[in-house]
Amino acid sequence: MAMNLPNRIHITEVGPRDGLQMERRVLTIDQRLDLISGLVDAGLPGIQVASFVHDARVPQMADAEKLIERLRPSETVEFSALALNRKGVERACLTAIDWIEVSISVNETHCLENSGMSVDRARREAVQMVAAAKRAGRSVRGSLQCSFGYGFEMETPVETLVQTATILIEEGIDRLVLADTSGLATPLTVTQVLEAIVPVAGVLPVGLHLHDTRGLGLVNVMAAMQSGIVYFDTSLGGLGGCPFIKGASGNIATEDTLHLMAVLGIETGIQIPPVAQWSRRLSEIFGHELPGKVYRLDPAE
After folding, report:
1. Domains of the chain and CATH, by start
2. Active site members
3. What's this model's pTM, rounded to 2 decimal places?
């Protein structure tokens, strides 16, 4: 069977942000910096290192400014941080972070429950967030939460998704990311959504932030690649999820994704062993197995 697959994909490792925020144990800044350095050495081209949110709500992301100040400079890695409101963007702009992720929900119910705003109001807020980040000379990832539904599959209207994406694109974002926040995406809905979004994005890169909540993560990656997508967010060991959505756990595992690319002959520029080594280390620190599979294999195999 002929498959339309790319020669190379770009992975953004979100474990130091999305992954750590789901764990009860809070890592120190030194531990987080060691993890990030290990991921840089493994060849990750993009790493999301922090989020500018309230420390009381997400204590795992406390001291984002201090962490970014101590980051080891790299000319080959896109370091990014997440912001959910204008205050978060303002905080991010006071640091040296190059990429800021402006993230809003496109699902009315989730948007109201999570931020107290309607989608329309969130769009207006996002316009101001993107403008502030661009004025500060930062690159912007515009991410749309619940792109594939919130309470059930495709509850989020595709029209709402397209309208919101269009607004962010017109504001000058540098990459559009569709987030499967609730882990509801399927190969069919991934294809359906991308058929609507890709023509609107034009030359703007489109990426996917997929969860493996229902075991379809890598199948959805395959569907996305066949639709022309080459940008993906992954998390070492499959760590992560959304702390504000019950059951929305498990990003697609970095090592599992890398293994899939290796057997397909798709380049990533990333080494599996050092990433897996860090997943095993985090498993020991957190006291439980991680959702990923490849990191558990004997390194000699």
Report:
1. 10-293 (3.20.20.70)
2. 242
3. 0.95
